[in-house]
Automatic annotation (TrEMBL):
Keywords: Signal. The keyword Signal applies. This is DUF4139 domain-containing protein. InterPro entries: DUF4139 (IPR037291). It holds the Pfam family DUF4139. Residues 187-477 form the DUF4139 domain. Residues 1-24 form the signal peptide.
């Protein structure tokens, strides 16, 4: 396979030794951390991304020469933390003196990946310009070590390799001191970005009066690292480790279509420090520019709760009683549809897509929301969207301040309308936050929930009709808390 290039021809001769190049072996072990970066999961745009975080451990079979000499480790990802890269020789055959990272980016990215390889450089008419080992690829041309010395080629049409294979990604040039010549096993570990994962959930709501759903859990693995990963042993980490270096790879549909990965067995779940880990049961293929999916948990049916929520105000509490008449008089008209369920196991953060069948039995998308890291037994709630047939209106019906008695009385009327053909239950959530001491003095519907900053009512709204909720609260405070103005 040739690489095409256009430049001006110039040849220079010098003396430089050949640098053996070592390509990646299949079967790397990778620990992959969660990332929500849009750049990783986008269906268009630059195929390269400097988001996500993974720690890779792989074996390299190297050919050593006795004494000090140079090696090139190729087929590395595009984005690496050079300070955290480590090459070791378990048998003690050699030690690393220095290292230099050659980034596989820019116009010479593919050629940089060939550093240390045997290549043939061809001209416009297919004539051979140079054959030997590629020492460097830069804007000034190709530096090639030949049998006659070193050649600098500035104008060429194509580059071929003996195997017809162009490794992707970056390369690492190492100076090593070996105690003997011969083959040796080396272990290379490094953190990289351009690859990440997040949970992906799908819920199919079931027919019937009770809320239940068929729940599927997957891990979406995005690879934009600049290299392919073959037969990779993968462990996924759920949680949020701290990353101190802003310049290092960070955790935050591709050129290739999303690639589902079949797996009969499920990941083995465990703990790592304060985080959860999911070790996949079999090696996976992660082509560059792809999204792969693997199951996290077996599909199951879960109970759930659908809520139509009409909410006004917030949880903010003033430093002293708020006596301003215009405070907290805002009113919206939208009623929000939400879905809540209890986590059957530890659920890593990700996005939940919710479907329901239409009148013809065809599943239709009705909303999507983010689930944060959710421990087993905790509730997860997402917003599906705005209910089309439901509306709300909030009006204040009375307001009175008694400074001498250190009390404030306030009342509201909430009108709910339902244009649909079936009755609906609407949860009205109010936030009495003029002051922390308050009580409900009257309500046309009994509160279903009451906390220090929240008041909730469940109101039945008939089909093609409306319902009205009236309620009043009284705030009180002490002499020491009395506002001065």
């Amino acid at each position: 396979m040739p690489i095409r290039h256009r430049n001006v021809l110039s040849i220079a001769i010098a003396t430089l030794c050949t640098i053996p190049s070592v390509w990646a072996a299949d079967g790397a072990s990778m620990t992959l951390y969660r990332s929500d970066s849009p750049a990783l999961y986008a269906s268009s745009g630059d195929s390269d991304a400097n988001d996500g975080y993974a720690v890779v451990r792989e074996r390299r079979d190297v050919t050593l020469q006795s004494g000090v000499h140079d090696l090139v480790l190729g087929d590395l990802p595009n984005h690496l933390d050079a300070e955290a890269m480590a090459l070791g020789f378990p048998g003690g055959e050699a030690k690393v003196i220095s290292q230099r990272l050659l980034l596989g980016q820019g116009p010479n990215a593919a050629l940089t990946g060939l550093t240390g390889s045997s290549i043939n450089v061809l001209g416009d008419n297919g004539q051979a310009l140079a054959s030997g080992t590629l020492l460097r690829a830069g804007e000034d041309g190709l530096v090639v070590s030949t049998d006659h010395g070193t050649t600098l080629v500035r104008q060429y049409a194509a580059v071929t390799t003996a195997g017809g294979n162009f490794p992707t990604g970056s390369s690492l040039r190492l100076r090593v001191d070996a105690s003997r010549s011969g083959q040796a096993d080396a272990t290379l570990s490094y953190p990289t970005s351009g690859i990440g994962w997040r949970a992906s959930y799908v819920a199919n709501l079931q027919a019937g009066n009770a809320c239940s759903m068929q729940f599927e859990s997957r891990a979406s693995i995005a690879n934009r690292s600049g290299r392919d990963w073959h037969d990779t042993n993968l462990t996924l980490i759920a949680g949020e480790p701290n990353f101190a270096k802003t310049s290092a790879p960070r955790p935050m549909m591709m050129r290739a279509a999303a690639a589902p990965v079949a797996a009969e067995a499920l990941p083995e779940q465990s703990t790592v420090g304060d985080y959860r880990s999911y070790t996949l049961p079999a090696p996976v293929e992660l082509p560059d520019g792809s999204i792969s999916q693997v199951p996290l948990y077996a599909a199951r049916t879960l109970s759930c709760e659908r809520t139509a929520l009409y909410e006004n105000g917030g949880n903010w509490m003033p430093p002293q009683p708020m006596l301003n008449e215009t405070f907290n008089t805002d009113s919206n008209t939208s009623i929000i549809s939400t879905l809540r369920f209890s986590a059957f196991d530890s659920l890593p953060a990700g996005y939940l897509r919710v479907l329901t069948a239409d009148r013809n039995g065809v599943p239709q998308f009705i909303g999507e929301g983010r689930i944060n890291d959710t421990p087993k037994g905790s509730d997860a709630t997402i917003t599906l969207g705005t209910a089309f047939d439901l509306r709300g209106k909030r009006e204040r019906t009375s307001f009175h301040v008694d400074k001498a008695g250190r009390a404030l009385d306030e009342a509201f009327r909430i009108t709910l309308t339902n244009a649909g053909d079936s009755a609906r239950t609407v949860t009205v959530r109010e936030h009495p936050n003029r002051w922390r001491q308050w009580t409900v003095t009257s309500s046309s519907v009994k509160p279903s929930k009451q906390t220090t900053d929240t008041l909730e009512f469940k109101v039945e709204v008939p089909a093609n009709g409306k319902a009205v909720l009236d309620y009043a609260v009284r705030y009180t405070w002490t002499a020491d808390e009395q506002p001065q103005s």
